[in-house]
Amino acid sequence: MFSFQNQINRPALIEAAAFGHLDIVVLMLRKNFNVNEKCENGETALMVASAGSYLDVVNVLLSHGASLNEQNVVGHTPLMKAAFGGHVEVAKRGASINTRSNEHNECALSVASYKGHPDLVYILLEAGADDLNFALSAASKGGQVTVVELLLEYGAEINSSTFPLPSPLECAISNSHLDVATLLIEAGGNINGAISNGNTYLMMAAGKGDQRMVELLLVYVYTQVDAQIVGLKPHWRGEAYEAFIYERTKTTTTIRKRRRRRRRRVRRLTEEYDEGNASNYINRSLCGTRNDSSEANIGMVGILFTKKPKQKQQ
Q: Which residue, 27, 105, 216, 225, has fewest beta-carbon neighbours within 10 Å?
């Protein structure tokens, strides 16, 4: 077997495959170059061709017996290399899909999920890729909304964490991926759980200065303790903010009571007006006296909402 190497100690076949030189690869294979020879970092010609998305070179190498399960010094396989670029050809050729690296414990599914290649993720899932939870955290860290949705449909656990990544929601919040965080929360993500250092998600977002993420979390997390820690004033934005204000100041209750009282007064006024006694009702409410000039007093209905009745001095 021939094994000529270049100045950076990478065999000639690997060098040709790395740049997609199909004719040279074919020529060397015909001259019996070792198709599975490795360079110093453990990579093979199939790995570098897969990483470069040179599909013609990949097919030629596979037809000459290139191994799909070789690993480099950090544990990456040709399939993982293909996953970085979203190339599905190697996955379709029967590669070992659940092999893990010894660098970050990732597999092909988690790599494709992090890089955001839903087509490849789908193929791997259909082929039996089993580490959905780690892949969900990876996709959340990469901000890949489509992949997150796909993994959840296939049964990934939304509140799980797999070393070395934390939970999907923490990955999304720590990397400021608002769309992913929203999706995870609405799908049942636990926003009240403590993160790795004991803080809350709201504290983490506030510490990063991520205002949009803080606003999102305040919609779902509005306890008094968290609000005091963050130091933000609530805004009127939906029922969650109203509930927040109710717990803090009881302002909501006061406003609602005033509105109910006004509605009751308008209702009573309407009933008396229908009976022809509107003038007398208005005078009793405003002045405590009787006045026969109904036209003048009907125009005073609006005062019921702004002024209190005045008693006539004796």
A: 225
Residues 6+ apart with CB under 8 A from 4: 11, 12
Helix (H, G, I), strand (E, B) or coil at 2: strand
What three-state secondary structure class fits 5?
A: strand
Q: 117 — alpha (psi -120 to 50), left (phi > 0) or beta? A: beta
DSSP 258-301: HHHHHHHHHHHHHHHHHTT-HHHHHHHHHTSS--S-HHHHHTTG
Q: How many CB atoms lie within 10 A of CB 195?
A: 17
What are the residues whose beta carbons fall under 8 Å from the beta carbon of 241, sequence distance 6 or more? Answer: 218, 219, 222, 234, 235
Beta strands in the chain (DSSP E): none
Q: What is the Cα–Cα distance from 117 to 181, expressed in whole angstroms?
A: 19
What is the tens place of the pLDDT at every residue in 32-46? 999 999 988 889 998
Under 8 Å CB-to-CB from 252, ≥6 apart: which residues?
Answer: 242, 243, 245, 246
Q: Which residues pair with 2 in a beta bridge?
A: 33
pTM value surpassing 0.70: no
- Structure confidence by residue, pLDDT tens digits, 259-304: 566 556 556 655 654 555 544 544 444 444 444 444 433 332 233 3
Q: Phi and psi dihedrals of 33, rounded to 5?
A: -70, 150
Nearest Cα neighbor of 160 from 127, 113, 193, 111 is 193
Domain ranges in the chain are: 261-305
Which residues on adjacent β-strands are paired with residue 11?
5
Dihedral sign, Cα of residue 169, residue 170, residue 172, residue 178: positive
